[in-house]
Design goal:
Helix content: 25-40%
Largest sheet: 5 strands, mixed
Radius of gyration: 16 Å
Order of helices and strands: EEEHEEHEHEEEHHEH
Strand content: 15-25%
Number of strands: 10
CATH class: Alpha Beta
Shape: globular
C-alpha cells in the first residue's frame, strides 16, 4: 500500500503582534537566555520544512535572522492579515504557523499536525473544548480565499476563520488532549515570565 507524501510547508513565525500587555515587543523577550523569536524560529527550522519565514515588521528584533520577513499587506488587523500575506507569498502547499509567544509547543506536536495535514490533505487547526488554537496550525493554500474574503469584510477573528474552514471542509480540527493543553500557554504579560 502506498502512502501520500508529506505536504510541502513553509514554516511561519507569527511575530507581528503589538504586544500591548507585555509593554515591549514580545519577539525580543528572553526566555532562558534566548529571545522568543530565536527560540521559535529554531524550532521551525528543526522540522525540516521546505522553507521558513517571519510574519512581522521588517525592523523587528528578528531583522537579522536570515529568513524572509513578510509584512502584513493590510495593517492593524491582527494575525489574520499575516496569515493572508504569508499564504500569498508561500510557494509551498501551505504554511505551518507558530506564534512567537507560545514557547511550550514541542516539535513532536508540530510533526503530528503535519502528519494529519498530509493524511487529510486539509488545513489542521488544534481545538481545546469549543475553542480553536489557530496561531499554532497548518493552513493549506485553499484557505487563502476564505481568509482574504473574511479580512476584506472586516472580520479579523481567527476563531471565525477556523470555523468557516471546517464548515467548508477545507480544514479539520485536531483535538488537543489533556496532556497537550499546556503547550498553548502563552506569554502575554511581564508576570507570565516569572511563572515559567
Amino acid at each position: 500500500m502506498s502512502t501520500l507524501p508529506n505536504i510541502r510547508l513553509s514554516g511561519v513565525l507569527l511575530a507581528g503582534g503589538e504586544s500591548r500587555r507585555m509593554g515591549r515587543d514580545k519577539a525580543g523577550v528572553e526566555l532562558n537566555g534566548l529571545p522568543l523569536w530565536e527560540r521559535q524560529l529554531g524550532l521551525l527550522q528543526s522540522l525540516a520544512l521546505n522553507d521558513c519565514m517571519i510574519s512581522g515588521r521588517r525592523d523587528g528584533p528578528y531583522a537579522g535572522a536570515g529568513v524572509p520577513i513578510i509584512e502584513d499587506q493590510v495593517v492593524g488587523c491582527g494575525p489574520i492579515a499575516g496569515i493572508v500575506s504569508i499564504l500569498e507569498e508561500s510557494r509551498q502547499d501551505g504554511i505551518l504557523v507558530l506564534a512567537v509567544d507560545t514557547p511550550f509547543v514541542p516539535a513532536g506536536f508540530l510533526f503530528d499536525l503535519r502528519n494529519c495535514a498530509s493524511a487529510a490533505r486539509r488545513s489542521v487547526i488544534p481545538r481545546i473544548d469549543q475553542s480553536f488554537e489557530p496561531m499554532v496550525a497548518i493552513y493549506l493554500k485553499d484557505a487563502l480565499v476564505p481568509a482574504r474574503n473574511q479580512l476584506a469584510a472586516g472580520d479579523f477573528k481567527l476563531q471565525h476563520l477556523a470555523t468557516s474552514l471546517i464548515e467548508k471542509d477545507l480544514a479539520i480540527a485536531y483535538t488537543v488532549s489533556a496532556e497537550q493543553r499546556g503547550y498553548f500557554r502563552n506569554l502575554n504579560e511581564p508576570d507570565d515570565l516569572t511563572k515559567v
